[in-house]
Write a structure and sequence with these properties.
- Helix content is 53%, strand content 8%.
- It is an alpha+beta fold.
- It has a four-stranded mixed β-sheet with strand order 2-1-3-4, covered by helices on one side.
- The longest helix has 29 residues.
- The chain is globular and about 45 Å long.
Length: 207
């Protein structure tokens, strides 16, 4: 059975859990990370030298990096609907997944750590304001894309890209600040509520 190493509150672990729900993959999960088993031990570092969750064990196969993990899971256990093999369709999905992991994540990192996690190292009001401005600019890009598709981030159908993007949108709505109103993003988040893993692993009270 698939084994997932990582605490359930981690946004990157929740990507994996949501995909498992979509694909009905049975799994067992072990709590690793802050507040649980430490990831800087030789045992864990032998699995992921970065000391980060999630890590999966699928038989003898070990994999880390959340986006790589969900790509693997949908390729091994999934369907053409979530992650098509057609190069152009797959590239569009990968584009938005990579954008979420790099540009979007970097934009909200400081503000989220300061406003939600209350990190003492992230309490500069100027830096929080800069982060919020950048975050809003990136959410405007997402709103424009969702307005164009009228449905999901990579097109008319729910795809693998909507898992990381959906979790980031949840983080947007869960952060206490006067965020700009993006109607297409709001409609999209409501649309995600029809998915099997949404309530359990995205809109689950955890930003």
């Amino acid at each position: 059975m698939l084994k997932i190493l990582g605490k359930a509150s981690s946004i990157n672990v929740r990507k994996v859990l949501w995909v498992c729900a979509e694909l009905q993959i049975p799994f067992v999960r072990e709590d690793w990370g802050t507040g649980f088993r430490q990831t800087d031990t030789p045992e864990f570092l032998s699995l992921n030298p970065n000391g980060l969750v999630p890590v999966i064990k699928d038989g003898d196969f070990v994999l880390w990096e959340s986006n790589s993990i969900i790509r693997y899971l949908v390729s091994r256990y999934g369907s053409e609907v979530l992650y098509p093999t057609t190069p152009t369709k797959r590239a569009r999905i990968d584009q938005w997944m990579d954008w979420q992991a790099t540009d979007l994540n970097r934009s909200w990192s400081y503000a989220f750590l300061g406003l939600v996690r209350k990190s003492p190292a992230h309490q500069s009001l100027d830096d929080i304001a800069t982060s919020l401005t950048s975050w809003g600019q990136h959410m405007r890009i997402l709103d424009s894309q969702l307005h164009a598709t009228g449905a999901f981030v990579a097109g008319e159908q729910f795809s693998l890209a909507d898992v990381p993007i959906g979790l980031s949108v949840n983080r947007w709505f869960s952060t206490p600040f006067e965020y700009p109103r993006f109607p297409a993003v709001s409609d999209y988040f409501d649309r995600l509520a029809d998915r099997s893993g949404f309530a359990a692993y995205c809109k689950n009270g955890m930003p």
